Every structure is written in structure tokens, then in C-alpha cells.
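User: Sequence recovery, please. Input:
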């Protein structure tokens, strides 16, 4: 009975982490696609967006930078931008209004209350979320 209670609590906790990361990743992909001009700036925008929104999830680790950079440049969740493009030749794009597309992936280790055999790896699940967004930049 206690195992079912623990599993229910862990499921609720991991669902909360997943929903928070899902929202933060989607917002990070939108920010990168809307404002970034290079892959490096897309990663910086994505990391800042995810870190600010995910600072309450278990597994969040601030960086060693002084405040407020410690939260804005967190070391966990891990944020990557597998693809970023800025196109002036795609349909609907111009040199003044390019189309930005970004895919952002985030992952965070989630420690369960109990190490469930066959369900966890040493009592840890890794929550991974991927989100994409495309938009015409600069249009009002």
C-alpha cells in the first residue's frame, strides 16, 4: 500500500516537472525564433527563458555566477538548441522580415522518493522535453 502511495506522489511530482519544462521549452523556442540572429544568441535566449521558468522544479541547479546570473544561466535543467535557422528565402520571408525557426530541448534529472526497480535508474528519471517554433521576425 505504501509503495502505491509513494508511486502516486512521485507520479504527481514528475508530472508537475514535465508540465513546467514543457511550458518553459515552448516559450524558449518562441523567444529564440522571435529574437535570435545566431545559434549562439538562440542558445542564450533559450537558456535564460528555461532557467527563469524552471527555478522551482526539483533538480534545478543555479550556476556559480553572482545573482541574478546564477538563476539566468543555470546548469540544470540542461538546455540545447539542436536547430536554429533564419531564412530570407522561405515562402513569406523577406530580407527585412526573415523567418526564424528554433528547436529547443531541455532535460532535468528527477530524483524519486523511492528507487523503483525497473522504473528508475538508481532512483532517477530523466525528464526530456523538445519544442519547436517558427515565426516571421520583426513584424508587428
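Assistant: Recovered sequence (140 residues):
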Amino acid at each position: 500500500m505504501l509503495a502505491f502511495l509513494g508511486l502516486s506522489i512521485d507520479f504527481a511530482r514528475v508530472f508537475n516537472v514535465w508540465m513546467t519544462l514543457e511550458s518553459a521549452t515552448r516559450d524558449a523556442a518562441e523567444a529564440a525564433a522571435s529574437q535570435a540572429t545566431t545559434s549562439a544568441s538562440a542558445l542564450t535566449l533559450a537558456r535564460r527563458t528555461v532557467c527563469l521558468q524552471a527555478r522551482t522544479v526539483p533538480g534545478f541547479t543555479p550556476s556559480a555566477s553572482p545573482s541574478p546570473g546564477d538563476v539566468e544561466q543555470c546548469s540544470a535543467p540542461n538546455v540545447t538548441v539542436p536547430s536554429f535557422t533564419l531564412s530570407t528565402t522561405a515562402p513569406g520571408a523577406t530580407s527585412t522580415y526573415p523567418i526564424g525557426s528554433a528547436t529547443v530541448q531541455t532535460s532535468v534529472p528527477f530524483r524519486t522518493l523511492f528507487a523503483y526497480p525497473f522504473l528508475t535508474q538508481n532512483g532517477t528519471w530523466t525528464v526530456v522535453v523538445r519544442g519547436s517554433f517558427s515565426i516571421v521576425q520583426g513584424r508587428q
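The first strand starts at residue 78 and ends at 87.
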